[in-house]
Amino acid sequence: MKMKSMIQNRHSYLEVFSGPPSDREIRSQSLKCALEIRKFEIELYWKRAAYFWTLIAAAFAAYFVLQSVESTVKDPSSIFLVTCIGFILSLGWYLVNRGSKYWQENWERHVDVLEDEIIGPLYRTNLARTECSIIKPHDSFPFSVSRINQMISLFITVIWLALGIHSFPFFSLANKYLFLAYCGLGGLTLTFAILLIWLGWPKKSPRKRKINFEIDELEDTD
């Protein structure tokens, strides 16, 4: 079967998951795999979060320890180095959060289309209460946990950037060579930040097929 590069409706999507021994068997196995991979992606999401939180917390601890020492022995270059490390770690955490969320949603979309024929619209059916009040602190509310995590990682990234700018000796260094060393470290950090985004940018692959239809609208749109 020739694979389509663009899937534009539910019918063409299900055609990809058809063949012997039976379409239902193939789609049932596909749904099982999609659910397992989605669960795996969620587990990885929080493992990565714990990994980055540990490193960022260590960077914060180092920063405040260096800031607390007496001014006579304080090393501004070490403080600036720590802020550069903290910024790169936080930026990496933010980018990883967005990437993890993308792949989690990818498998959720597979489940959305495949589940109807096998188990019914279980995943898309919400049995929560119809009314949730945000003003009740003891009550549940359908906040997006992953979005909150993303915004926290972005906030921490901005904090490290501000700390780095604050610790950069714009006019306080009489030694021009030392000032150039600061500029070099700052430039290297920004260059590496750009490389993180550029190398992590999705590359086009001829083997990938894109879905271009609304999952919630399950009627065919031929």
Provide an overview of this structure.
- There is one protein chain.
- The protein is mostly helical.
- It has one domain (18-123, 138-202).
- It is 65% helix and 2% strand.
- It has helices spanning 10-16, 23-68, 76-118, 145-167, 176-200, and strands at 6-7, 210-211.
- The protein has a two-stranded parallel sheet.
- Helix 2 packs antiparallel against helix 3 (76-118) and helix 3 packs antiparallel against helix 4.
- The protein starts with 5 loop residues before the first strand and ends in an 11-residue tail after the last strand.
N-to-C SSE string, H for helix and E for strand:
EHHHHHE
What fraction, in percent, of the residue positions are helical? 55-70%
Question: What characterizes the major β-sheet?
Answer: 2 strands, parallel
Instruction: Report the radius of gyration as a whole number of Å.
Output: 24 Å
Number of domains as seen in the coordinates: 1
Helix/strand-derived class?
Answer: mainly alpha
Q: Quick one: how many beta strands?
A: 2
Number of helices: 5
- Share of β-strand residues: under 5%
